[in-house]
Amino acid sequence: MQTMERQSVAPVHRTSRRPAPWPVEFYRSAVGKKWVMALTGIMLMGYVFVHMVGNLKVYMGAEDINHYGEFLRELLVPLLPRTVTLWLLRLGLIAAFAFHIHAAYALTRINQQARAEGGYVSPRDYQAANAASRSMRMTGVVILLFLVWHLADLTWGTVNPDFERGDVYRNLVASFERPAVSAIYIVANVALGLHLFHGAWSMFQSLGLNNPRWNSWRRGFAAGFAAVVMIGNLSFPIAVLTGVISADDNDDCRVSDGTIETCELYAEGES
Amino acid sequence: MSPNGNGSAPGNGAGGDHETMDITLHVWRQAPGGEGKMVTYADEARGISPDMSFLEMLDIVNERLIARGDEPIAFEHDCREGICGSCGMMINGQAHGPERGTATCQLHMRKFRDGDEIHVEPWRARAFPVLRDLIVDRQAFDRIIEAGGYITAPTGSAPDGNLIPVPKEVADAAMDAAACISCGACVAACPNSAAQLFTAAKLQHLNLLPQGQAERYRRTQAMVETMESFFGSCTNHAECQEACPKEISIDFIAYMNRDYVKAQVKNRRLAGQQS
Amino acid sequence: MIGDLESRTPAGPIEDRWTRHKFDMRLVAPNNRRRFDVIVVGTGLAGASAAATLGEQGYNVKVFTYHDSPRRAHSIAAQGGINAAKNYKSDGDSVFRLFYDTVKGGDFRSRESNVYRLAEESVNIIDQAVAQGVPFAREYGGLLDNRSFGGAQVSRTFYARGQTGQQLLLGAYQQMMHQVALGTVTLHTRTEMLDLVVKDGVACGVVVRDMVTGQVSSHSGHAVLLCTGGYGNVFYLSTNAKYSNATAAWRAHRRGALFANPCYTQIHPTCIPASDEFQSKLTLMSESLRNDGRIWVPVDPDDTRPPDRIPEGERDYFLERKYPSFGNLVPRDVASRNAKAVVDQGRGVGPLKNGVYLDFAAAVARVGEDTIRERYGNLFDMYERITDENPYQVPMRIYPAVHYTMGGLWVDYNLMSNVPGLFVLGEANFSDHGANRLGASALMQGLADGYFVISYTLADYLAGLLGSPPVPADDSAFADAERSVGDTVARLLSINGTRSVDHFHRELGKILWEHCGMARNQAGLEKALIEVPALREEFWKDVRVLGGPSLNQSLEKATRVADFFELAELMVRDALHRQESCGGHFREESQTEEGEALRDDDNFAYVGAWEWTGKGSVPNLHREPLDFEYVKLTQRSYK
Ligand SMILES: Cc1cc2nc3c(=O)[nH]c(=O)nc-3n(C[C@H](O)[C@H](O)[C@H](O)COP(=O)(O)OP(=O)(O)OC[C@H]3O[C@@H](n4cnc5c(N)ncnc54)[C@H](O)[C@@H]3O)c2cc1C
Ligand code: HEM
Ligand code: HEM
Ligand code: SF4
Ligand code: F3S
Ligand code: FES
């Protein structure tokens, strides 16, 4: 009278069990990936925060911000040749991004496989999951795309017609004066805000940083951090659009610094 | 307590001196091996007493289906006291329905209004295949326990129960985790179909206790890796905590993550010493 | 031993009997154990602990359960706690006192030797559970905490919040799953045993049905252990889990195993009354509530006023009135019977007039709401969740419900039934509780049987079979059993009548509750002896089981209810023949003027074990006389 086969539940994911050095083993596991993701997340957070604070110098006028750009390149000179430190930082940043994105991608695949195909047919009524937590992947990708564009805009200047290497201030204003560009920045930074709102809380759990005594602060920290970075970053395009910052009070680098050489100096320095 | 008839007539469920209510049900029906679909029952869930449990409401619907010659809705249940973990279904998009910290069998109809539409689906996850209607196969949970969810204590080998004092706080925390009834709501509620809450609860119950220390890191690695071979990964939605009928905290997930990192290092080190 | 039943009870001073017996029994050498196949049916406390222990010792164990996971067995629902004569509180407890209390509590219808062994092993259970990581309640010093239970004068009950059964079962389950991982135990879930296979009078295997695929198959072994729990669900409404059933035990009975004391059923006084006709099960509330609650009903049967409007003068605190000295704290059976009496007089309360008040107003006034919340908070919450009434303001409504069955398959001191090779453990056997079980002693018995008794007594039996392979599963004995199972299933699926299985089960429950429930009398029992078979006939003519053999819950119920019908008839017969009152069995003809159970030790101090003699024919009664050397026979009194 048998009508169907009785099968015992088989694993959903095949995991390669070739023994490997433990960091590799560790990264193979999903918990390990989340851990790396949190760690790289923290690095990226550090970067966006410092970056935002650094950019605040635009409010102090061209001189400061431009010197800030120079300052970055002069880091640890003479200990290390000029821009080397910056490059080391960049490498770290690139690595962090690489891992963060790879982990994000791998985990996303795992979760897709783990879900039943079709999923629930009737609408879910989420109690705890919020817009931020559910859109991490999306906001992440938005940030990634933005970044590429951003580098092309303010670092290489390829999408910025009147880009002047080294004259950070001018470049900035020139970009943001175009509403379309400002729009991109605004959208991207809102995405970043969302991403951080969940990420900066989530990372505590992923790292196992949990203690009833201060658990309640974690939410606050994440919200605060996300808000500060987002508001800070949003202020720039808005400031330009509303004319709080404008090209006129741009005493460009020559004037500011007296000599043309210095500007060329910047240019050479870039390569 | 005298049952009457087979309940085919609407209103038979009427109990107590309460108003009765009429419900429209949308239930997932799926035959073994077959494709499933939502089926609407507009007349079968009339005259429901608010004092009934959700499962008793389904009992009535089934009585009426049988009377009418239709196969009853299959759903898992046993203790009907919220302790065995058999029951469980997605009710209006929430695992175990709208009442917090309550298993489906302890959910009562008074939580709904007359005229409500109720959508009922089985737990959904790749590792929880549907067997029939609302019944899913949760063997994956047993595999996780098998992998290391125990303390090795062969019968007869035990020292006196009071030999190792266990601080009350520790015993209480272990009990909080041990309260898990393995219902699977955490997996069902999780947008990633992750079994983190279940595994963490099972793991930390043992890892917290002095008796559990000897095997702590072996256990952690084995259980986590088995979990990962069946389920998704946790992105900390905390939806599981809301769905859990025993209100088990996601704090345990963090502790599990911590222990897993330690386990990775420690187990390697031990391995090194052995060779 | 007189009588035709060989109980194999060792002689000598009671405190050495078990030790001596353990030494006298034969052993199986470790290297020989894997040659023995042992079948364990059931993964409750008894089954899981037995499977784990036998697996550890190296036997080849096959485990079957109808649950989707072993950890869901009904044991999971046990709340209150587990007794052990640890005497950690040094309040005068001892193995002998636990033994004494249990024999007396069982109203002198249990075997002294068994009960003493139970008390002896109780202490090892706690050690074993602690080692497994069972999170028993602790004191601030870190030592194990105890509560007193079931009115015992000593504090000997160990507990894990309100989930003692759950935690103990998880411990045993995890220990068993470890063996599953090691390959000594093979686990078959969603697989129910539908027949016992007996060849040449010896148990040699089981026939099971895969509840998912519907496939029927045979498994052979050198011995079969039934750990399949109690049969309280024969009443339809009980505190037992919905799936709990008697099929395994009943099938064994039909294959020759004697069924002992089927009429001994325990009714628990403090349960939540049914709220409507479709009540599916009854929820137990710890009887500790009776320490502070006052039980009453209105004097006037048709008093419809809310309780708080009924003046003191028009209330009848019937327990306090009838038992001035014990008041609301009379034992389970007395409290239950009196509640039934007033409800039968039409003085019941609640929408269906099917309960009595358990009133905490006085206690709240006396010690304050906070103290009451401390003591019973979780119970009050559970009550409110189910009834939507706040017991701090409105008195609770309670009513007795079927809770536990002391009767079961007859076993000797080695837990082996009269069928060689068939062992019965836990609630499924009749052994240790006599006519009434004391609180927190069933968990103790299930685990003692599984962890500390069976491994010795089974070895003694298997030692005799060394070298002989198990009966092959393709033997004709198996084929016949498979056929009869197949036929039953096919028949149930083909009747296609007009009434659901639940309908018949409810009707059966009504008859039993009416005539073979809390109070029984000649006339009623004789009536039931006609009504039950009549309803059974209807069942086989008119039951409607839709669908096919694969994962069909109506079919599962149908096979179980079919067996309940036959068991019910035997319960009635047993109740009819036992013309005395003892423990859970109350014959109205045999009571003192205070309405207490009146034993008849001269004529009924024996175990009544029934032998199946075929469908429709009257079963044979075998008697195992009980003698009491250590606990004097006395009449219980609560004056
Ligand atoms: C609400 C409640 C509270 C209780 N509280 C306490 C308490 O506080 N203290 C105490 O000491 N006792 C208590 N008891 C009693 C105690 O829980 C039970 O007597 C005891 O757990 C029975 O255990 P068991 O192993 O014998 O059977 P069970 O735990 O009932 O296990 C039966 C097993 O057999 C399996 N099975 C049955 N038939 C078949 C079949 N045909 N095929 C395959 N598998 C089958 C089932 O799947 C299950 O795994 C309570 C009981 C109830 C109902
Ligand atoms: C560049 C593209 C990016 C992608 C695709 C991406 C994607 C993701 C995803 C999918 C997660 C997992 C969600 C979770 O675990 O909760 C995540 C977490 C996180 N991301 Fe990103 N992210 C990106 C960039 C960034 C940046 C720029 C930052 C910081 C400024 C950042 C900070 C974090 C943090 C802190 C977490 C939490 C880690 C954890 O929960 O363990 N991410 N990211
Ligand atoms: C409105 C907000 C922002 C402003 C005004 C801004 C401005 C700038 C400017 C002016 C530079 C060039 C600096 C130089 O060449 O010296 C720069 C570089 C960079 N920015 Fe931003 N930025 C913003 C947001 C972001 C965000 C959200 C990210 C990350 C997700 C980001 C990542 C980078 C990186 C990686 C570089 C290259 C740094 C280097 O050259 O090493 N920026 N940004
Ligand atoms: S953790 Fe909670 S939700 Fe998950 S299985 Fe255990 S009890 Fe159910
Ligand atoms: S809902 Fe899922 S994502 Fe993690 S916190 Fe709970 S498992
Ligand atoms: S039926 Fe046991 S938990 Fe719901």
Summed up, the helix count of chain A is: 11
Bound molecules: flavin-adenine dinucleotide, protoporphyrin IX containing FE, iron/sulfur cluster, FE3-S4 cluster, FE2/S2 (inorganic) cluster
Oligomer: heterotrimer
| Rg value of chain A | 23 Å
| Global structural class of chain C | alpha+beta
Q: Which value, in Å, is the CA radius of gyration of chain C? A: 24 Å
Mean pLDDT of chain A: 87
Shape of chain C: globular
Structural class by secondary-structure content of chain A: mainly alpha
Calculate the mean pLDDT score of chain C and round it: 94
Distance between the termini of chain A: 79 Å
Content of β-strand of chain C = 5-15%
Spans of chain C with pLDDT under 50 lasting ≥5 residues? none
Q: What global shape of chain A is seen?
A: globular
Largest sheet of chain A: none
Write the layout of secondary structure elements.
The complex is a heterotrimer of chains A (271), B (275) and C (639).
Chain A: H1 22-28, H2 30-55, H3 62-74, H4 84-114, H5 131-134, H6 136-155, H7 168-176, H8 179-207, H9 215-241, H10 253-257, H11 260-270
Helix pairs in contact in A: 1-2, 2-4, 2-8, 2-9, 6-8, 8-9
Chain B: E1 24-30, E2 36-41, H1 54-67, E3 90-91, E4 94-95, E5 117-121, E6 130-132, E7 135-136, H2 139-148, H3 168-178, H4 185-189, H5 196-208, H6 216-230, H7 239-243, H8 251-274
Parallel strand pairs in B: 1-5
Antiparallel strand pairs in B: 1-2, 3-4, 3-5, 6-7
Helix pairs in contact in B: 2-6, 3-5, 5-6, 5-8, 6-8
Chain C: H1 14-24, H2 30-33, E1 37-41, H3 45-57, E2 60-64, E3 82-83, H4 95-105, H5 112-132, E4 157-158, H6 164-182, E5 185-188, E6 191-199, E7 202-210, E8 216-220, E9 223-226, H7 247-254, E10 259-260, E11 265-271, E12 294-298, E13 315-316, H8 318-322, H9 332-347, E14 356-359, H10 361-367, H11 369-387, E15 396-405, E16 408-409, E17 422-424, H12 442-463, H13 476-495, H14 501-516, H15 522-542, H16 553-577, H17 601-604, E18 606-611, E19 620-625
Parallel strand pairs in C: 1-2, 1-9, 2-5, 9-17
Antiparallel strand pairs in C: 3-4, 6-7, 7-8, 10-16, 10-18, 11-15, 12-13, 12-14, 14-15, 18-19
Helix pairs in contact in C: 1-5, 3-6, 3-12, 4-5, 5-12, 10-11, 14-15, 14-16, 15-16
